[in-house]
């Protein structure tokens, strides 16, 4: 970011100055910035299931290098190839802080997608201009900013129509994408599982359908237009330019096929889940805003090595790990894809099955980032999407356990404020471990209790069964007698059935 541009209507976004808690634009390792702090921070424990972003980014970079610019050095390449973007937002309602935070977030999203953010502009308007998103007079100022900074892409903080995108591109002579395309692009880069990839492609095609005619044409006329070619750059990866050119019917067909695939994969996952449910292992789902520290908390609670990165949408595939309560009961803990303000509805639809799984858990662990500029807005955005998922169904959301994370990253004053705003929340730091023990207790408290009271005398030869009662049930008393272990416990019906085989005199019934 360079200087602010300020006048009555066009308000510069001094995003760098907002970066005190690592929420600004600087220092966040973008996928291209391979030596960035985010990347090194996660280097130690990456589970097999989720290979590092580093690897994906590296691959992407090498591909570009070999196909386009094989004869120049990597540094030169990166300067040429990295999108240099200018952000622009229309501020229609809310406070100036909210408008700033939205654009700062757009900047982090852009960096996550591998772009370099040069400048951010916000225009105060009652509503976006139907033709050019920002007012036509301001388009010229934006064009000047673009030229002055040598930018090659403009990213708009909203969802634009095909007409708006086309007109802006014609006037600005650079590629124009919107927030939705950017988020879809990040998802396309990050999706790893077959299901995740299908879900993202589906969402991208649904986004592209109404925009097929026109958008991008302004640029393809330009010599070396960046919207075309291999990879297409930010906002145009995934289905990409070649698929843009196939006709609607074929896209429709592809969408139908993907839908079917997603449904099929959903069935597989449901079966797995049902198997878990049949075992009646209680489940906890971690939900929350992207980068709130969900994966870090999963690691802190279970000791798992799930990918953690200071990048948005590091996690796209739900990961399930085993957790144990302090009194030894098992439960499952599932990490989920993060939420973001204005999560494209195409993505909500595409990820519905994944999110539904979270919503079917016994407890929702809702993680909020204390160090965010607007933690309350994070909570609101997450609850909104969760509400959308259960909308029109008689299913209700599981009880929510709100967790304020990154307590180490804010001062006492802000912590006190958050405690006041969210009196029910548990305040933790996944990084230092503060509060994690309390959190584990709180989870244990909220898990459904096994409800069949049994007394059984288990012969010493049945040590494995004793261990199982400890793991799955709640042991009320345990005595070692001459005949075996005398247990009084609350267990779930299936285990009660097994234990019914043992009378209190220790013989199998
Ligand atoms: N200071 C501080 N940083 C934290 C804490 N917990 C997580 N972080 C950092 O926050 C960033 C995001 O953490 P993740 O666990 O990947 O967050 P996430 O919610 O899983 O993010 P996505 O999967 O991208 O949605 C990483 O850089 C973490 O190191 C904490 O308690 N304190
Ligand atoms: Mg994560």
Structure commentary:
It is a single chain. By secondary structure, the protein is an alpha/beta fold. It folds into three domains: 10-192 and 212-239, GTPase HflX, N-terminal domain (Rossmann fold); 280-446, P-loop containing nucleotide triphosphate hydrolases (Rossmann fold, 3-Layer(aba) Sandwich), CATH 3.40.50; 452-499, no CATH class. The protein contains 19 helices and 14 strands. It has helices at 37-41, 53-68, 74-81, 96-112, 136-149, 162-172, 179-190, 194-208, 217-220, 240-245, 248-278, 294-302, 345-350, 352-359, 375-390, 412-421, 436-446, 463-472, 493-499; strands spanning 10-12, 84-91, 116-124, 153-156, 175-178, 283-288, 319-324, 330-335, 363-369, 400-405, 426-427, 452-458, 474-480, 485-491. The strands form three sheets. The protein has a six-stranded mixed sheet, sandwiched between helices. A five-stranded mixed sheet has the order 1-3-2-4-5, with helices on both faces. Strand 4 (153-156), helix 6 (162-172) and strand 5 (175-178) form a beta-alpha-beta unit. Helix 8 (194-208) packs antiparallel against helix 11 (248-278). The radius of gyration is 26 Å and the shape is elongated. Guanosine-5'-triphosphate binds next to helix 1 and helix 12.
């Amino acid at each position: 970011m360079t200087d602010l541009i300020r006048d009555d209507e066009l308000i510069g976004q001094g995003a760098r100055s907002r970066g005190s808690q690592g929420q600004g634009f600087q220092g966040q390792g973008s996928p291209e910035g391979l030596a960035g702090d985010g990347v090194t921070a996660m280097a130690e424990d990456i589970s097999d299931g989720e290979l590092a972003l580093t690897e994906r980014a590296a691959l992407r970079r090498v591909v570009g290098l070999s196909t386009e610019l094989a004869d120049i050095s990597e540094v030169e390449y990166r300067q040429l190839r990295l999108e240099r973007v200018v952000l622009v937002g229309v501020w229609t309602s809310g406070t100036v802080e909210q408008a700033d935070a939205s654009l700062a977030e757009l900047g982090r999203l852009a960096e996550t997608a591998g772009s370099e953010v040069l400048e951010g502009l916000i225009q105060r308007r009652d509503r976006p201009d139907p033709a050019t998103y920002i007012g036509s007079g301001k388009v010229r100022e934006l064009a000047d900013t673009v030229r002055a900074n040598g930018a090659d892409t403009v990213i708009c903080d909203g969802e634009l129509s095909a007409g708006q995108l086309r007109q802006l591109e014609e006037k600005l002579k650079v590629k124009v994408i919107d927030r939705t395309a950017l988020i879809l692009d990040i998802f396309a880069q990050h999706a790893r599982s077959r299901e995740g990839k299908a879900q993202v492609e589906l969402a991208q095609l649904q986004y592209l359908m109404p925009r097929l005619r026109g958008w991008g044409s302004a640029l393809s006329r330009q010599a070396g237009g960046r919207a075309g070619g291999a990879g297409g750059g930010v906002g145009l990866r995934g289905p990409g330019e070649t698929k843009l050119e196939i006709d609607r019917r074929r896209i429709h067909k592809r969408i139908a096929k993907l839908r079917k695939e997603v449904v099929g994969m959903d069935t597989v996952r449901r079966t797995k889940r049902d198997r878990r449910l049949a075992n009646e292992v209680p489940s906890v789902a971690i939900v929350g805003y992207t980068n709130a520290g969900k994966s870090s908390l999963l690691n802190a609670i279970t000791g798992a090595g799930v990918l953690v990165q200071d990048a948005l949408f590091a996690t796209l595939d739900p990961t399930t790990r085993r957790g144990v309560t302090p009194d030894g009961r098992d439960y499952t803990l599932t990490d989920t894809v993060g939420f973001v303000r204005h999560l494209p509805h195409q993505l909500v639809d595409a990820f519905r099955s994944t999110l539904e799984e979270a919503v079917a858990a016994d407890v929702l662990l809702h993680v909020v980032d204390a160090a965010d500029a607007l933690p309350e807005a994070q909570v609101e955005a997450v609850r909104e999407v969760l509400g959308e998922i259960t909308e029109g169904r008689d299913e209700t959301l599981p009880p929510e356990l709100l967790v304020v994370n990154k307590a180490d990253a804010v001062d006492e004053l802000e912590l006190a404020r958050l405690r006041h705003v969210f009196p029910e929340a548990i305040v933790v730091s996944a990084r230092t471990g503060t509060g994690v023990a309390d959190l584990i207790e709180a989870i244990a408290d909220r898990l459904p209790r096994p409800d069949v009271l049994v007394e059984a005398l288990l012969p010493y030869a049945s040590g494995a069964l004793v261990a199982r009662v400890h793991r799955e049930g709640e042991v009320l008393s345990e005595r070692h007698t001459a005949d075996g272990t005398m247990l009084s416990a609350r267990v779930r019906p299936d285990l009660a059935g097994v234990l019914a085989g043992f009378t209190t005199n220790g013989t199998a019934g």
